[in-house]
Amino acid sequence: MSETISVEAFRLLLDRAGIRVKPESFEDMRNAYTLLQAMRERVRTSRGYDAEPAHIFTPADR
Amino acid sequence: MVSDPTLLTIREASTLIATRELSPVELTQACIARTEALDATLSTYVAFTPEQALDAAKAAEAEIRAGHHRGPMHGIPIGLKDIYDTAGVATTGHSRLLQSRVPAEDAFTVAKLRESGAIITGKFGTYEFAIGGPSFDLFTPPARNPWDPSRTTGGSSSGSAAAVATGMVLGATGSDTGGSIRSPSSLCGLAGIKPTYGLLSRRGILPLSQSLDHAGPMCWTVEDAALMLQAMAGHDPLDPACANVAVPDFAGTLGAPVKGKTIGLIRHFHETDHEAAPPVLAAIEAAIAVFRSLGCVVKEVTLPPLMDFAAVGLIIMSSEAFAIHEADLRATPELYGEIARDRISLGGLLTGADYVQALRRRRELCAAVAEAMIGVDALLTAGSPFPAQPIDQVPKWLMYQKPSITMPFNVTGLPALALCAGYEEKTGLPVAIQLAGRPFAETTVFQLGHAYEQATDWRARRPGLLAA
Questions:
Q1: Complex ipTM tops 0.85
Q2: What is the pLDDT of residues B302-315, one digit of tens each?
Q3: Residue B267 is part of which domain span?
C-alpha cells in the first residue's frame, strides 16, 4: 500500500496541474490520491513490447 | 381492458397496441399519472415533458389506426438519461455547468428511438456527468431507490433505473463507462445491457471517457432490453468508434434452447477479489443451478485479478474525463458538484506515462479474457457485489477502495447484461447476476438471460410503494 502523500507534496502536485481544490476537499483528495497511487503501481509494471495501444486501419480505410 | 398498463412489459404492451387493445395515449397517460404520484419521492426526472409525450402518443395512435405499425417500440413510453442530446430540450448532464444548454439535434440513438415510434417522456437524473453522485448539491436531488427510498439506485443511470422499476416508463436509456447501466439495473431489479463497444453510436451523448463509454437500454425484462437495443442499434459513420456490423434480430432468437451452452463462472471475482454479500453469493449459486437445469455446462474460469481491470479502467477513465473537463474545471469549478469536481480533478494528477501503461495493460487483459473464453459462450459473476446502500452513506471513493465488478467489461468492451436474480430476504432489495459474452454476441447473452428469467419468478414482484 502506498504511503499517504505529504500535504506539501500534494499541494505542489495540484499547483503543477493547475487544479484548485476547495479547502474542505483537500484532505479527502489527499487520502484518495493514496488509493490512486496504488492503482498506478499496479499498471506500471514491465511488459512486452507487443502490449501496445495500437492504431489499427480496417480494410475499408485502404 | 388492461388494469395497469404501466406494469406491462414492452413486448406485452406492443402486442396490445398492435391489436388495438391498448392505445398509446392511454398508456402514456398512465405513465404520466404514475410519475405525478411518485416523482416527489423518487426524484427521477430533471426534465419531465408530458405534453410533448402526449402529442407524440396521439401521433403514434393515429398512425397505427391508419394501418402503419412501425414495430415493437411504436407507442411505448421511454425516458432518456440526461446526457443524451434532445433537440429543443435541455441536456445538462445533471450539472449546473450545462443547465441552460439546449441541443439543436438529437443524439443518433435518440433519433433512432424516435424513428421506431417510441414516446419520449423526458430526461432522467444522473450522477453529474455520469461520474459524480449521489450528490445533494446539484440543481435537483439524486434519484432514490424505489425498493427503499432511503437507499441509492446505484449510478450513474439513476433516474432511468428508478423510473423503469416503477412503471413511469417501460424502458430508459443509460450509459456505462464503468458499470453505470449494470449497477443501477442490479440495485433496482432491472435487465440492463452494456452492449459491445462500437455496437451503438455515442454521437450526441455527453462523453465521460471515450474509450470506455457505452450507450444501452435499461428495461424490466431481458426481452424488452433486446427490443429496445434493436431500436437503438445501427451504424453511425460520424461516430469513429461505431462498428459497421450487421445488426442481428436480438429478440428473434429468444426462447431457443440454451442446452449445451457453456458458462464460465468467474468465481474469484465475487468470492475473493471483491467478496460479495451473502445474499448475492446465494443468488449466484442458485443461478448456477438454474442454468444447469436448463442443460448448460457451468465451469470455472480464472481471469486476471479484478483489481487489475479496476486499475486500468480507473486510470483510463480518470485521464480521459480530466481531458474533457480540464478547461471548465479551471474556469468555473464552482459550477460542479463536489463529488464530480473532486473525482474528475484527481485525474489531473495522472501522467501521460500512467495513461499509456494502462492502455498497454488493457491490451494484455483483453488477450487474457479472449483466451479464457475459448470454448465458453458466456461469463457469469455478480451484477453488483451488494444490494443498495443507504443513499447518504455511499463512499465517495468506493471505486478506488474496492474493485468494480462491472469494469472488466468496459475495459474489454465485451457485451454484459445485468439481470435480477432475487431479493434479499431481510430487506426485499434486489440482487443481480451479470452475464458477459463474446464481441457482438449479444444474442447469446440475451438467450441465456431470457432463459434464466423464464425459469424463475423474479419478474412477478414490483417495488412495494406501488401498492401504497
A1: yes
A2: 999 999 999 999 99
A3: 5-466
